[in-house]
Automatic annotation (TrEMBL):
NCBIfam families: PPR. One of its GO terms (biological process) is RNA modification. GO terms for molecular function: RNA binding. PROSITE patterns: PPR. Keywords: Repeat. The keyword Repeat applies. PPR repeats lie at residues 33-63. This is Pentatricopeptide repeat-containing protein, mitochondrial. It comes from the Eukaryota. The gene is PCMP-E34_1. InterPro entries: E_motif (IPR046848), PPR_At4g14850-like_plant (IPR046960), PPR_rpt (IPR002885), TPR-like_helical_dom_sf (IPR011990). The keyword Transmembrane helix does not apply.
Amino acid sequence: MDIYVGNGLVDMYCKCGSVNTALEVFFSMNRKDTVSWTSIISGLAVNGVHDNALQLFSQMLEHCKPTHGTFIGVLLACAHSGLVDKGLEYFDSMEKHHGLVPEMKQYGCVVDLLCRSGNLNRAFEFINLMPMAADVVLWRMLLSACKLHGNGVLAKIAANKLLQLDLDNGGNYVLSSSIYATAERWDDAMKIRQLMNDGAVQSPLRMEFN
């Protein structure tokens, strides 16, 4: 089988949720490159087959070098299976063992890993120690986790960061207000609503019906 056709089929079957067929195609390929391994590892991680994804990553290291994309799949598998320490080990190994300087997407995967496991303080510390400024995706991730786990202190910090970075996004205001309302901090919730009104920012619901 042509390697490019094989890679395309593995990617297609994974995106369709046909994991077994994707694995059959992958193992039937006589030659595999980094794209082949990354496609199957990421595809398994997305479809919830986390153990197999990590096993294949170990096998991959015997044949070729991983890429930034490979580590997204590996970290995603760790995040969805609750393997916090293992995920952090993989993240640290990127630069230490593979010469890959982590980018925003890999940092985001680690924040997701920590948030999913309820380690919000560690996620906040991790964001503050990043060599680049966190983007709105990371702050929104932390804010959503604060809502889920009821952490009002960090929620306020994340909400303020979001409003600074993405002032015109009505979804940020609605999410922040909802978190304060859930915590029965009605004054703060009203302040957020007032900020949205003062800035003439439409909420997602209003935009949907306009």
